[in-house]
Write a structure and sequence with these properties.
Layout (H helix, E strand, L loop, with lengths): L5 E4 L5 H10 L3 E5 L10 H8 L7 E6 L4 H10 L4 E4 L5 H6 L5 E6 L5 H7 L5 E6 L24 E3 L8 H8 L3 E4 L4 E3 L2 E2 L1 H20 L7
Parallel strand pairs: 1-2, 1-8, 2-3, 3-4, 4-5, 5-6, 6-7, 7-8
Antiparallel strand pairs: 9-10
Length: 219
């Protein structure tokens, strides 16, 4: 049975952008807790923004090698929070959060995604991003052909997505969800309402095309 592709809008810093993402149909909203990111928000700011979310829209907090007390503070401040680990965290570190979690994988030639996913076998999903210097995908698209067809966990596709390429991405990769940040921005940390709407519309277009022709794909 075909599933609806879920949508995560990441790197939000303003109330208006949270509201726009919800209105456009996002399933999850991401807050960056990494201090070196231009999209960084504090735990209290993330709590304020998450408080605006209606039922069934999930707040996700992105951590990069954060201290355990920082993660614990965010989990306490936002009870429905799903942590997303984007650094060098081990499986045991991720599990200590005591919540369903997302684990980011940095995709590059030679990276063994199947082994990585097996190490994080209890992750809710594996988020695939481009391998760049530092952490995060830097708004770069990676080679989608690197993704095996038999990843043992649900896949969240990230890395350089925007309204003009996300339909093709979904038809080729068929991920459980897609994640976008810079692809819906007018400046770092400042989202563009129309770009968010166009992105979500493009995801729905891909799902509609798959419903009409389940064998449809882009190579």
């Amino acid at each position: 049975m075909q599933h609806r592709t879920r949508i995560k809008i990441c790197g939000l810093t303003r109330e208006a952008d949270v509201d726009a993402a919800v209105l456009a149909g996002a399933d999850a909203i991401g807050f960056v807790m990494y201090p070196k990111s231009p999209r960084h928000v504090t735990t209290m700011r993330a709590r304020e923004l998450a408080h605006r979310l209606p039922p069934f829209v999930t707040p996700v907090c992105l951590f990069v090698n954060a201290a355990e007390d920082e993660i614990a503070a965010a989990l306490e401040a936002i009870p429905q929070l799903v942590p997303q680990f984007h650094g060098d965290e081990s499986p045991s570190t991720c599990r200590r959060a005591g919540r369903p979690y997302l684990r980011a994988a940095r995709m590059a030639a030679g990276f063994d995604l199947l082994d990585f996913a097996s190490q994080f076998s209890d992750a809710q999903a594996i988020l695939l991003d481009a391998h760049v210097d530092g952490y995060g995908g830097g708004g770069k698209v990676f080679d989608w052909s690197l993704i095996p067809s038999d990843v043992p966990r649900p896949v969240v596709l990230s890395g350089g997505l925007h309204a003009r390429n996300v339909t093709s991405a979904i038809l080729q990769v068929r991920p459980w969800a897609v994640d976008v940040s810079s692809g819906v921005e007018s400046a770092k940390g400042i989202k563009d309402v129309e770009a968010i709407r166009r992105f979500c519309d493009a995801v729905r277009e891909a799902d509609a095309r798959r419903a009409l022709d389940p064998a449809a794909c882009v190579t």
